[in-house]
Amino acid sequence: MRRIALLAHGAGSCPETVRRLLGPAVPDGVAAVAVDARGSVDDVVSRLAESARGRDVVLAAGVSLGAHATALWSGHGGRAAGLLLAMPAWTGPPGDVAALTAASAADVLARGRQAVLADIEAAAPDDWVVAELRRGWATYADDAVLSTVLLAAARSPGPMLAELARLDVPTAVVALADDPVHPEAVARAWADAIPGARLAVVGRQAPARDRGALGRAGRALLAATRPAGGVSGSR
């Protein structure tokens, strides 16, 4: 059976971005499979299940909406030897953070992605998050498609704390400090809810120097969580 790591990107992002951010968590000799995570969280859960069918999933990892989908996939019977949940955005029903995503969807549809990106870059020049956002948004066919994807994400519920409490897999939760769209408090709540989970908080600018900082932090947590012989290593 083929050994794989499933990687799920965030809303408005793309497979190449999640490979950069979480790829270092994938062990040597394990194939990374980056799923198409565009659409609602239910759509992403279905794609994770399809990608996992008939394979030995050594690691399931997601960032933002991809983290939501990865947790839900695992809670609904998806089997992986370990989970890496990076930068979760909300828990349960969409709230204020989701409303920010919905507002971005409306703005993209009204003014176009280039105008929206120009405003974001003016407010945060040289921010690595903005650079990744520009790369990700460029992969969408047009502004209407991007807006639809962002809106679907904004309307998608995250896992409930009770669902997270039922996960029985070694889990690393990684937060990005000082990120209003992916609050550290949400990551802490997830780590507290998941039995045995470990939490790491990565400095806001750490990925500017090393795009794989989130993945490396998650790999270190899983290595500390797993028994001897568990999954470790880097790509």
Commentary on this structure:
The protein has a six-stranded parallel β-sheet with strand order 2-1-3-4-5-6, sandwiched between helices. It folds into two domains: 3-94 and 158-225, Rossmann fold, CATH 3.40.50.1820; 97-154, no CATH class. Helices cover 47% and strands 14% of the residues. Residues 228-235 have low confidence and may be disordered. Helix 4 (96-111) packs across helix 5 (113-123) and helix 5 (113-123) packs antiparallel against helix 6. With 235 residues, it is an alpha/beta fold.
Could you tell me the mean pLDDT?
93
Helix-strand category: alpha/beta
- Unreliable stretches: 228-235
Domains, number? 2
Could you give the order of the helices and strands?
EHEHEHEHHHHHEHEHH
What is the topological layout?
Layout: E1 3-8, H1 15-22, E2 31-35, H2 41-52, E3 56-63, H3 65-75, E4 83-86, H4 96-111, H5 113-123, H6 128-137, H7 143-154, H8 161-164, E5 171-176, H9 184-193, E6 198-202, H10 206-209, H11 213-225
Parallel strand pairs: 1-2, 1-3, 3-4, 4-5, 5-6
